[in-house]
Amino acid sequence: MKAIFLICLILFITSCSEGIQRVKMPDELIPKDTMVMVIKDLSIIEAHIKNKFPPINQSFKSLQKSGQLILEKYNVDTTRFNASMDYYGSRQKMMQSIYSQVLDSVNRELTELTAK
After folding, report:
1. pTM across the whole model
2. Is 54 part of any domain?
3. Given pLDDT bands bounded at 50, 70 and 90, which one contains residue 68?
4. Mind listing the pLDDT tens digit for each residue in 28-61?
5. Is residue 57 domain-resident?
6. Is residue 40 exposed (0-12), middle (13-18) or buried (19+ Cβ within 10 Å)?
7. Which of 36, 44, 72, 82 has CB 3.0 to 4.6 Å from 101, enough for a Cys bridge?
8. Domain count, the chain
9. How many CB atoms sit inside 10 A of residue 87's CB?
């Protein structure tokens, strides 16, 4: 639930700004479909850790380690991820599309889990 709130908050913040400067496409841009999977996994693990360890001083190291493991799962390093986030973030419609797909995927998984 916290992940959904975080996603909605990011969408709201990015949709409110008018004058975002476009960032040049990085040489190793993460494809949009991979970005959706990475952000989805990061959102889920972040929600889980924050639910388990609410104080930030307890969850910070777990978030870092878990985030790094997720990036490794997709063969992405932090620099490449940040450059891709900057690129997609400077294109509001693309970022909104990515987060919409993340939200749809999380909701689909949640529906499947609750049906079992």
Report:
1. 0.77
2. yes
3. very high
4. 999 999 999 999 999 999 888 888 877 777 778 8
5. yes
6. buried
7. 36
8. 1
9. 19
